[in-house]
Amino acid sequence: MVIFRSLSLCDFGFALGLWLFCTFPIFAQKDTTFYLREIGVKASPLAPYASGSKLQSIDSVFINLQNTLSLGELLSLQSPIYCKQYGNGMSSNISMRGTGAGHTAVFWNGLNINSMTLGESDLSLLPTFALEQVEVQYGSASSLYGTDAIGGSVHLLSQKAYFQKRQQIGFQQDIGSFGFSFSGIKFNWANSKIETKTKLYYSEARNDFEFQNISQINKTIQTQTNAQFAYKGFTHETNYRLSTHQTLGLKLWYHQTDRQVQAPMIDLQSQDFQTDRNLRLSLDYEHISTKGNLKIRYAFLSDYTKFSQYPAIPTLRNIGFVQYEREIGQKIFLNIGANWDNINANNEYYGGKISENRQDIFASLKYFALRNWTITVNARQNFVSQYRPAFAPSVGSEYVMKFGNSHELIIKSLFSKSYKIPTLNNRFWQPGGNPDLLAENALSGELGFLYLFKKAGTEWKTELTAYQMNVENWIIWLPTGSFWSPQNLAEVRVRGLEFTQNFTQKTAWGNYHIGGNYGFTQSQNQKALGEYDRSAGKQLPYIPFHRLTLFGQANWRKYYGLINWQLTSYRFTTTDNERFLEGFHLLNAQVGRNLPYKKMQFSISLKINNLLNQSYQNIEHRAMPLQNFQITFKTNFL
Amino acid sequence: MRKQLFFGLLFFALYSCSPDSSNSRPTSAEGVIVVNEGAFGNTNSSVSFYNPANRNVSNDLFRLTNSAGFGGTVQSAHFEVQRCYVAVQTSSYKDKIVVAEAGNMKFVTEIPDMIIPRYMAAVGNKLFVSNWGNYDQSFNSPNSFVAIVDLSTNKITKKILTGSRPEGIFAIGNTIYIANQAANTITVLDAVSESIKSTLEMPKSPSHFVIDKENKLWVLCEGGNLVRINPSNNQIERNISLMAKSPSGNLALNANRDSIFFRTTEPWPSQNRAIWKISIQTTTDNAQRIIQKESMLSLGVDPFSNLLYIGIGTYSANGTVVRFNSGGKEIDNFAVGIAPNGFIFR
Asked: Is the ipTM of this complex over 0.90?
C-alpha cells in the first residue's frame, strides 16, 4: 500500500502526482462529507444515562476538516479543556476541570483505553483521522465509566451502522511546513447485510521548526533538532446483520508512533526516542428487541511503549462486557451490566509479571418523574484482585421548560462520587512503587442551564455550568532520597464555570456556524504537603485559570472557510505558585474549495496555523512552532 | 455575536494579567549563598543570596540579571576572586561551568566540555572540577575525571582520569583530595605538576571532606563511616563506623572546628532525615542527633554565627532554608529556590 512506504512526501511533486492519480474518474460520485452539513442540536449518544452532565459533541464537519490533528489539538480548538503538549507532535496530556491527565477516562467504543501502567492517555497517539465521532462528558462519572472518570471522559465512537448499499473510496494528501506530510485512504462498503469501513494513514514530519530560544541569554532564533516524528495505522470495522434484531461487529485499530522526543530548548542535543504501539480489537454482539437490548463484548488491547534504550513496557488486556437494558412500564428505563478486565503487565521495572483482574458491576435507572422531568440514578461497584474495592454512585436530574415552539430551557443538576484506582506504576514500579496507596476519591456537584432556540434555518445553543469537586487521596510522587515514591497526600478542591455558545444560520448564500467555549478553573491543593510546604491554597501547576476558544465556519457556494482562536491564560509551573509560564493565544485559519468534476469530488484547502506568529510554550522550555502552513487535497469517489 | 465579543474582551483582560514577578535587585554577594539544584530537565535552578544581618533574601539573581537561567540543574557553586563558578548539568552531556560576576551574577562566560560536573576547588590560578563523566549502558561511570581550568582564560587545560564518580574535592596547600564515590578511593593530586600522587583505599562511598582545627582531614563515607586522614602522610588515623546510620551529602564543621555535623537518611518509606553532631576527639560513634525533619536536602554551618543552615524542599516548588542554633533549636526560616542543595558562607 502506497501510504506505508516511507515516502519523501515533503516532495510537493510527488504529492501532487498522488493527488492527480487519485482523480482518475473510476467511480461515480456522490459525497456530502466535503460540504458543511447542516449542524443540528442533536442528542449525544452518551445522553441516555448522563442526565445532569454537560455533554459536548465535537462537530463532525470540524473533525473532517481538521483530521490531521491529534485528539489533543482537536479538543484544544473546540473546548475549554487544556491539553498540554511536550512540544510539536509530542506527548499531550489532557486536563479536564482542573484535574490531572489520569483523571480523564478516554474511551474507544466503550473501552477505557487509558494506559494501565501510566493511568492516562497520550492524546498525541490518537489521530483525528482514525476517529468518526468525538463526544465529551464533563465532570465526574465513575458511576457510568469506572476508574479515571473524575475530571471527565472523552468518547471516541464509530457511527452506527445503517446497512445501506454504498461504496466509497476517499484519498487525502497533506503537505505542510517542517517536512510535514499526511496520507490517508478510506474505503467504505455496505449492503443490507454487511457494512465495512477501513482507513489507512501515514504521517511524518522533520519538525525542524524555528523558534526563539528564550532559555538563552542572547535569545537567538534556533532550529529545533531531534524532534522528528512519524505515525501510521489502520482502522477497520465490519458490522454484520444477523437478523433484524441482531448484529455482530468487529472493530480493529492499530496505531504506531515513532518519534524523537523533542528536547527542551536548554538542551537541543538530547537523543531520546520513543516508540508506541497500540492494538485494539473489539467483538460485539447486539440484540435489540421489545424485551430489551442485550450487548455482549469481548475486547483485546495491547499497548507497547519503549523509551530510548530502556526496557519496553508492554501491557495486554482481555475484556469481557455484558449489558442489558429494558423499559419497565412507561416511566422507567433500567440498564444493568458487568465488565471484566484482565490486565497483564510484564516489564523489568515491576520486577516481572503483574496480573490483575478488575470486575465492575453497574446499574442505571432512568425515571421520567414528570413529562418534563427526568431523574437518573447510576451506581457502580468495582473489585480489583488483591486491592480495595471502590464504589461510585451518582444522581442526576434534568428539568425541561418550553417557551413557545422554539425556546427551551433545561436545568441540569448532578451529584456524584468517583474514583481512580492507582495505576500499576504507582503501585508496582521499583523502586518507589507504593502498594498501599488508596484509590483517589472525588465528590462533585454541578448545576447547569442549557438554552436552546430553533427556528427555520437558525439554531442557538447556550450552556452555562457551575461545578465544585473535592478530590481526596490525590496521589503525588515525592523524592525520598535516591528515588521518588507516590503517596496519597493532596486534597484538591476544584471550582469552575463553563460557558458554551453555538450559533448556526442557514441562508440563501450559504451556511455559517460560530461559537465558543470558556472555562474558568480554580483547582487548589487544600493541604500543606510538609512542614515548610507552601502549596496549600495554591492553584495546581499547569492548570490555567482561563481558557477561551472561539470559532467560525462558513461555506459559500463551493468555498469554505474556518477560523479558530484559542486563549490560554498563564499557568503556574510550581506547586507554591512562585513560577509561571506566560499565557498565549493562537489563531488558525483555513480556506478551501470543493471542485466537483463529473462524478467525483475534490477539495483543496490551505491552512495557516499560528497566523499571528506567537511564541509560546505549553511545558516550560518546550518550543512550539511559529506561523506555519498546510495544504490538503482530498478526493472522493462513489 | 456581541456576547462573544464581550467575553473575548473580558478574557483578554484576565489573560493579560499574569502574576507579578518583580523582585528587588540586590547587588551584594556577601553573606550566605544558597545553591538551588532545580528539577532535572528544567532550567529552574538558581542561586540565592541571604544577608544574615538584615535577613534579606534575593532569589534567582542570575535570572533577574541575565533574563535566562543557568540552562540545567546546578550541583554546586564556587567563589574565587569576584567570580562565581556554577556547575551546570544538562540532560545530554552539554554540561558546563557558568562564570558570573560575584556581585550581581552578571554572566561572564561559560566553560564547556564538562560531563556531569559535581564540585570545585581552586589552587592559585587553577580550578579543579570533579566530573562523573558519561554513563555506560548499565548506568556506571567508568570515564570519570577532574577537569583543570585556567582561571585567567576560563579554558580547560587538562583532564585527569580519576576513580569512578568523583564527588567532593578539597585543597590543602598544593594537594587536591578527590573522593571517588563509586571506586571507594581518594585520588590525591599535585596541583602544580597536575599529576596523581597517590590513590587511597577507603570504606564504601567516600563523598565529602572537612578539615578540623587540628588540621586533620575528615571524610564522610556514605556506606556509613567517618574517616580521619593525616594530610601530612595521607595515613588513615581513625575509622569510625556510624552504626546503622546512612549518612549522605556533605560534612560541616562548627565555628570552632572541633565538632562535625552530618546528615542521615532513614530507609524508605520514611521521609525522615536527621542531623547529627560528633566531636573530633571521638574514636567511636557517639554522635548525637540534634535535628530531625522531613525532606532535608543540605546542611551548612555559618562559621561567623555558628548557626546551622538546613535546606528543605521537593523538586516541585521553591524550597526553604531553616536556621538552627548549634544545639538544634529552630530559629527561623526563609524561602529560596527549588531544591536547596548547598551553602557557601562568605
From this structure: no
